[in-house]
Specification:
The structure holds 3 protein chains of 3 kinds. In chain A, 33% of the residues lie in helices and 25% in strands. Chain A is α/β, with parallel strands linked by helices. In chain B, strands 1-2 form a two-stranded antiparallel sheet. In chain B, strands 3-4 form a two-stranded antiparallel sheet. Classes of the chains: A alpha/beta, B mainly alpha, C mainly alpha.
Amino acid sequence: MIEIESLSVSYNSHAALSDISLRVGPGEFVLVSGPSGCGKSTLALALAGLIPQAVPAQLSGRVVVDGLDTQGAPVHALARKVGIVFQNPATQLFNVTVEEEVGFAPRNIGLSAAEVRERVDEALEAVGILHLRGRKLRALSGGEQQRVAIASVLSLRPGVLVLDEPTAHLDWRGVEQLLAALQRLRREHGVTVILIEHRLAAVASVATRVVLMDRGRIVADGAPGAILSDRSLLAMLGLRYPWCDVGRRVDPVGPAPRPHGDEPLVSLRGVSAGYGKHRVLDGLDMALYPGQFVALVGENGAGKSTVARVLADIMQAERGKVEWHPSLRKLPVGRRVGLLFQNPLNQLVCDYVEEEVAYGPANYGVDADLASLFAAADLTELRRSRTQNLSAGQQQRTALAAALALRPRLLILDEPTMGQDWAHLSRLMDYLTQLNDNGQAILLITHDDRLVCRYARRIVRMAAGRIVADGAVPATAPVVSPVEIAHMHR
Amino acid sequence: MPMAVGGFRLNPISYLAFLAWSLALVALLPDDRAGLLLAAVLGVGALSGGRGLRILTRGRFWVTVASIVALSALLLGERDLQWGFLRLSREGFLIGVWMSLRAVALMLAFAISLGVLSITEMVRLFDAVNLRGLGFALGVALNLGPVLRDAVEAAYHTIRLRGGFRRPLQATRLFLVTVIANALRYGDDVVKSASARAFDLEAKTDVAIAVNRADVVFLCALAAAGAAILILA
Amino acid sequence: MSKSKWTVRDWIYVAVFGALWGILEITLGSYLHVLFPPLADTFVVGLIMAGIGAIIALVGRWFVPKRGAVLAIGVVTTILKAFSLGGIVIGPMVAILAEAILMELALWLRAVPTRGLYILAGALAVSWNFFHKFIMMRILYGRSIVQVYTQMVKEGSKVLGIDVAYAVAIIVILFLFRVLVGSVAGWIGWDLGRLVGRRLARG
């Protein structure tokens, strides 16, 4: 089905793939993983023929998909052989309704209205979203939008489906739905699936084959059981060992510790807040204490990000009060709260790393030990680098260092796991643990229960704008076996 | 809800023709005959399900209209009417009323004809008149909107939290550069997606400007009504 | 527009700037109310927001170096705005479209615009802000509205005890102020395009 021979790709003489050779047979479900920057996305683009035809890069070697050479065949012909789905659904949607979106590609290749309708039905059915046919795309959840994106490439009936980190923006429910759809595609329609993913735990039990990459080369290729059990290999690549994952839900046990006293840093009392008529927080009561490492968890829509916005004074509480400790009330909000949004690139406002980190202190006229900050955030060698040239992990650390330069009393991280590989994430979290050991209060908003167990000391669970559980993180997390993980995804 | 005539729905072309018809009549009719146009527009509005008539429920709309009538009564013509301590002009008042009727007719015509259209129909119209790229751009802009809004908000609050407001000119520059650069990066991602879905600007699509029997009937009725109004005027 | 020379990337960038124009008017509008509270809700803030639209469209022209790009951006913004306002409101739609047309006319003068043309484009776009109200009123209310406004100026001058010529002078000054703001917007649009290009450059 897919034959890759001695494929090398470089961007402006920077090598992204080096001499890759790979064969994928029909109906396989191949999980491709590796650390950030190892060339996974480049491989995906080369498979779809987007390199070199739509993305400027230098390519040597050969990629043949279902008999078509990706370098010679026009992109619209390749689209009928291999469909590609990217991370962010918003950049893959060009229409207003689901039906129009899924019919977009068949219309592009000149099919009749009747044929387009047939293809749309087929594609929607294949991913289990026929019921969403007439819906507006903007009204759908992230998971639903991602399945629409899959359906929209399936409508060309490709034999191969390549997905580049499609779960990055999804919560667990969205991931489950997506994987179920992919399994159905493989079993019922014989589609070959190539899935690029960091979240090995989610995918490990559904893949039939695993390919691991590092620095543009394939370093392992085989059955999931064998490859993903090699802890030393996974550790070397900075990948999370998937078989020792925790269950999806961690519940608090007992009261959470207050390492620096009982006077809260900040209290939310009866806070209600929302967007227009849609109330997200409903009479919320919550207090954060100095030196605590708090994980704020809950499903999408529970109100976690809204809590962060209220604390950072981005959103006003419609009812209730936000009360800071008296010693902090006179401080500007940026010196009380450091906030890291989900996409670090949106928070990098300067051209260079050094400028970025020094920006806040310069504005407030405060001293900041930038050298120590750079060292602690592992940015010393990158201080003169352009922010736009950093990897996702480096961007995250730069944004974090910039927030920390103001020594905020409370640091809030909103879903820092998005798009991060485990190696970078571990480093980030270890750094946060260090800060917390030195008294920094941290509020971590996350879906990732493993992160919660390993780093947080207090867990606050939200649902429908209220707190439903609040207490200490259990010392030993429940361990789930591979059989149980597979059962979860059935 | 698009108007149905004899069980057939009107297509966008009818509504756009109605808008052009309204603009033409406004230009041709003497001001004191604006009531005739308004009656016709209200009729079309009612038959279209009344959605375009929602503008009539806005208080601000009526305040503007009332102020024009009041100003005309105060400023135009001879002040031959005493109203409390105010001296008003009958002639001015009438001129104000005709002006207002004309304005209401025009605003309603816009609201009705464009209010019934959806973005989907706009995109199809652009496709039909060979402006495929513009229709595509509209769809992309609609879907990118929320992502760009989040990016704008994140940049804005980042600068705010880092005290950037203390140097407003620098903050504005950094904000705009950040937001535009990141938006273009999203745009580059869209390019990849569009290429992967075989989007070809040059490809011919079988989209034509839809015209059915109801449209023909409606357009004929418009022509007749226009002629009648002009004769009556 | 010579559509055969336009690429998919060009149209996508038109979409990006079309979306940004509307979003930034709202965001920066509230930012300016925070920054300049004494001037909040005055014509200064309204004028600056008109300038913002011009800046975005002109930066868009930098990245879509094709004749017609600014007009296309304006059309996208107009349509998006119409569907986001919760109802068709002619005023803002006409304003955006008129500004886009005027900028396009200025930029059409050369295939490769210069800073001077950007300044001209900005000046034309924001000066529309001065005429917009009058033109909209003329279209909506007809000829008689001109008489109403003329009488207002005369009566106002009488009440305030100033010569009508001074009133005209004030009007001219207000117009020139808009031209100045627009020129600055054009200048900024040129520089901003360069700065964004620099931010995106790799290496």
